[in-house]
TrEMBL record:
Protein name: Thioredoxin peroxidase
Family annotation (Gene3D superfamilies): Antioxidant, Horf6, Chain A, domain2, Glutaredoxin
Annotated Pfam families: 1-cysPrx_C, AhpC-TSA
InterPro entries for this protein: AhpC/TSA (IPR000866), Peroxiredoxin (IPR050217), Peroxiredoxin_AhpC-typ (IPR024706), Peroxiredoxin_C (IPR019479), Thioredoxin-like_sf (IPR036249)
Stretches assigned to the Alkyl hydroperoxide reductase subunit C/ Thiol specific antioxidant domain: 29-114
GO biological process, alphabetically ordered: cell redox homeostasis; cellular response to stress; hydrogen peroxide catabolic process; response to oxidative stress
One annotated GO molecular function: thioredoxin peroxidase activity
Keywords: Antioxidant, Oxidoreductase, Peroxidase, Redox-active center
Function: Thiol-specific peroxidase that catalyzes the reduction of hydrogen peroxide and organic hydroperoxides to water and alcohols, respectively.
Lineage of source species: Eukaryota, Fungi, Dikarya, Basidiomycota, Agaricomycotina
Length: 179
């Protein structure tokens, strides 16, 4: 395969055509929503999954998974999005079975990559963390603010974590070091 493009935060997400559990799609035209539909829908976010297995294996999982999955048995999309493990670019186990791809992208409505998170094959993704990131990105885009680690929408963490903090500038606060 040709070398995959260097995708970075701020890159335009590459378009592709793929077979899915709901038919053929072109990624940039895709408009379907998945598991945790209500959580993502209230944020105006769509979810899509990619499996490093063939479409036929998705049919076996259909009762267990409710998300929208793209078949990528030939790894063209995984390669395009640079999602394959560098240690074993073929991304298969000792028996030749493909590992799952656990990379998450948050791509905004302008098709700009805003987040990438790559999990090891044996680690599941945290949809709570993905929703937290989406909330933070949307808040920052709207109000030009940043959020701290473990921020949750609606919480005043400055008062909770640092009671009595001193606000020097809108972006600069200090607190007494704990004993």
């Amino acid at each position: 395969m040709a070398e995959s493009p260097r995708l970075r935060l701020g890159s335009i997400a590459p378009d592709f055509e793929a077979q899915t559990t709901k038919g053929t799609i072109k990624f940039h035209e895709w408009l379907e929503v998945a598991r945790r539909h209500a959580d993502f829908q209230k944020r105006g976010v769509k979810v899509i999954g990619l499996s490093a297995n063939g479409l036929e294996s998705h049919e076996k999982w259909i009762a267990d998974i409710n998300d929208f999955d793209i078949a990528d048995a030939d790894r063209k999309i995984s390669h395009l999005y640079d999602m394959l493990d560098a240690v074993d670019i073929t991304n298969v186990d000792a028996k030749g079975q493909p590992f799952t791809v656990r990379t998450v992208f948050v791509i905004d409505p302008k098709k700009i990559i805003r987040l990438t998170v790559s999990y090891p094959a044996q680690v599941g993704r945290s949809f709570d963390e993905i929703l937290r990131v989406v909330d933070s990105l949307q808040l920052g885009d709207k109000h030009k603010v940043t959020t701290p680690v473990n921020w949750k929408n609606g919480e005043d963490q400055a008062n909770t974590l640092f009671p009595g903090y001193v606000k020097h500038l809108p972006y600069l606060r200090t607190t007494t070091a704990p004993a």
